[in-house]
Design a protein that fits this description.
Elements (H helix, E strand, L loop, with lengths): L9 E5 L5 H10 L4 E5 L2 H9 L5 E8 L3 E2 L1 H9 L4 E8 L3 E4 L10 E4 L1 H6 L1 H7 L2 E4 L3 H11 L4 E5 L1 H7 L2 E5 L8 E8 L8 E9 L6 H10 L5 E8 L6 E8 L5 H12 L3 E10 L1
Parallel strand pairs: 1-2, 1-3, 5-15, 7-8, 7-9
Antiparallel strand pairs: 3-4, 3-11, 5-11, 6-9, 6-10, 12-14, 12-15, 13-14
Helix pairs in contact: 8-9
């Protein structure tokens, strides 16, 4: 991978400044890095793969909205390893241009995951959800274009950045609203108390195939914290994504991965990394 031209570490995220991705980026890498926004998740992956960014920060799962499948698929597509993980508490706000009253709001712009996390609130208020590419992009659009009777669901940081009024705070449906972010590329410079290993594998379509893979981990007392399938390009064939607690340097994890590989058609280590 080519070195980025600047000596200051550049870390990519999707959206605009004020996005939750930038908040996760700052929590992981600190205030000294250069946070570089890109319009799409694919563009973040490409920036890291091509050396225009040292690392990228991407959401992969919401505690309320479920997996961000686009980023799971992009991780499988690219030859980049996961280098760290962060669970970020998400506090959503309903934000609008100054002068728009809460009772006059008819539409709310935001990312589909954010809209899903606030679906109950929007129904109770009778507000129509409208999807945008990112929460901060939604906030900026509302600030710059001021569409009639339209607010955005975004962070308080976005509201302050784009000169919007916070009409209501904490509009997410659950107080336990978290988004799991991963990094690809250069890992954050910090100590880790907990580590995980992520795998992607395929198995024969036959009885017991998946059981044998999972048994490689359970038989060694290792916890599998996530398991999901993603479709391959051939109809009705799938790749499985698995997270197991522990680093690949741990002999039990290494032995389990080797045993699992013997039961798979293919197996790829997506990363062995620290969890914040």
């Amino acid at each position: 991978m080519a070195e980025p031209s600047s000596q200051r570490r550049r870390v990519a995220f999707q959206g605009e400044h004020g996005a939750y991705g930038e908040e996760a980026l700052r929590a992981l890498y600190g205030p000294a890095v250069e946070a570089v926004p890109y319009p799409t998740f694919r563009a973040v992956f490409e920036a890291v793969a091509e050396g225009r960014a040292d690392a990228g920060v991407l959401p992969v799962e919401s505690s309320l909205g479920g997996p961000v499948t686009e980023n799971v698929d992009l991780l499988l597509e690219h030859d980049l390893e996961v280098s760290s993980e962060l669970s970020l508490r998400i506090h959503h706000c309903l934000v609008a241009p100054p002068g728009l009253a809460l009772e006059d709001v008819e539409r709310a712009l935001s990312h589909p995951q954010a809209l899903a996390q606030c679906a109950g609130y929007l129904r109770r208020r009778g507000i129509q959800p409208v999807a945008e590419a990112n929460t901060a992009i939604a906030a900026r659009k509302v600030a710059e274009e001021a569409p009639p009777r339209t607010a955005a669901i975004a962070s308080r940081v976005s509201a302050e950045l784009y000169g919007l009024t916070v009409l209501e705070e904490g509009v997410e449906d659950s107080p336990d609203n978290h988004t799991r972010f991963i990094t690809v590329g250069t890992a954050p410079p910090r100590a880790w108390r907990r580590r995980k290993t992520a795998l992607a594998f395929t198995v024969q379509n036959e009885p017991g195939a998946l059981y044998r893979v999972l048994g490689a981990f359970s038989g060694r007392g290792l916890e599998v914290s996530r398991l999901e399938s993603r479709p391959q390009r051939r109809a009705w064939e799938y790749v499985w994504c698995l997270d197991v607690d522990g680093a690949l340097e741990d002999p039990r994890v290494r032995e389990a991965v080797e045993a699992a590989q013997a039961a798979c058609i293919t197996l790829r280590v997506l990363g062995s990394y620290g969890v914040a």
